[in-house]
Amino acid sequence: MADAQADPAAGGDIVVTGSRIARPSLSSIQPATTLTGADLTRTGGIVIGDVLNDLPALRSTFSQANSTQYLGTSGLNLLDLRGLGVPRTLVLVNGRRHITSQEGEFQVDTNTIPTDLIDRVDVVTGGSSAVYGSDAMAGVVNFVMKRDFDGVMLNAQSGISDKRDRGTYRVSGTFGKNFAEGRGNVALSLEYNRANLLTNADRDELTGAFSGRNQFQLVDRPTANSPKRRFLTGVHSFGYDNGGNFVAYNGGSLLDCGGGIASACLPNGAPRVFGFKPDGSLSEYNYGTDFRPAGSNNNQNGDGGTLTDRGTLDPSLKRYVANFIAHYDVSEGFKPFIEAKFVRVESFNQGTPTFGQGGTQGSDGDGGPAVGGDLSRFRGPDLFRQRLSQA
């Protein structure tokens, strides 16, 4: 009886906290994420598309690093919700469709949106095709711009990676003025961004540009129960060389001599390979660990092309943006506005070279075959001149 009659206040205090801060995403009927303009610039990044790609709902299909995967797309930042493809993600500005940066396309490059005028970004990850059409199957990303910016805002920043490369720079200025007791506003935003080129050669420990590729390599003839592959570093390819090479074989493959002269073959049955040095002389390869007997054209820690010494990790970027907005509220039902912009984006990336293969193997000065002779005495320019004279 004593426990039943205990003071109900002994259970502790109940604290209720209220806030006047609007949180529309909490009452939305679809899952939504909201980021403010400060959230986008707090990381120090100069490309808002790359910052948005850090959200779990977005996939980095067309980030700065991935924009080099196709011809003509370097520097683009296109948003891809849930990895369903950029054509299924609708990008709006102030709730309206925005002009594209690509002729014949409708996807919006986020590099064309002025950073300092962004008030917030609403990301709706639920399918909205019933409202907006088939290009909103994955969801909608809406950039809400500042409507009544008044004053002057200047920004300048620079950054560099911990490897002391990939420098980034950003300078911007935004100027706005309210008038007619707040019924009208004009604003101008100017912005310049620059990011330096980062190539495979700048990250040898990652790409193996000079030391050799890191990959799963066939090391023995596979059988039904054992694929015979191992993860190796320092992998080079026999068939490719930046200076050009000469393969002493009489078949159609680097894997065997094809019945050629015995002196042109190695004891493992593979043809000898000679590469041109920078001075034009020809010398025999260091074969390293030769995987040709296993059915692969690669070697470990030998000579030959890495195929990764050319290529881009992050393209260079120069971005010039001028944006002018103005509005005047004549009445509650009539609010004319003006939006004008100039955007120029310059991007550069480095691709991998192509290789020409095949052709006759040349001859010595007396017209005899070069295969089987002392190939080290041939110099690249001399050999090419002989081929031209024979042609």
From TrEMBL:
Pfam families per the UniProt record, alphabetical: Plug
Q: Which InterPro entries match?
A: Plug_dom, Plug_dom_sf, TonB-dep_rcpt-like
The cellular component terms of Gene Ontology attached to this UniProt record, alphabetical and capped at eight, are:
cell outer membrane
Where is the protein situated, by its record's location annotation?
Cell outer membrane
All residue ranges annotated as the TonB-dependent receptor plug domain in the record: 28-140
Q: Where is this region: Disordered?
A: 290-310, 352-382
**Name this polypeptide is given:** TonB-dependent receptor plug domain-containing protein
Listed A to Z, the keywords are: Cell outer membrane, Membrane, Receptor, Transmembrane, Transmembrane beta strand, Transport
Q: Which Gene3D superfamilies match?
A: TonB-dependent receptor, plug domain (2.170.130.10)
Q: According to its UniProt record, which protein family does this protein belong to?
A: Belongs to the TonB-dependent receptor family.
- Chief subcellular location equals membrane
RNA-binding found in the keyword field: no
- Composition skew (Gly residues), residue ranges: 356-371
Q: Which domain of life is it from?
A: Bacteria
